[in-house]
Amino acid sequence: MDNQFKIEIDGDIAWIINSKPEVLNAVRNETWDELNDILDELDKNESVRAAVLAGDGKAFCAGANVKEMAEHVELFATGDLRDVVLRRWQNALQNSTRKIRGLRIPVIAAVHGYAVGAGLELCCACDLVVAEEGTLMGFPEATVGVTVTNGGTFYCSRLFGLSKAREMAYTGKFIDVEEGYRLGAICKIVPKGEGRNAAKELADDIAAQAPTAVTLHKRMFDRGLEISLEASLVYETESLITTARGADHAEGAKAFVEKRKPQFTGR
Question: How many other CB atoms are there within 10 angstroms of residue 153's CB atom?
Answer without folding.
Answer: 18
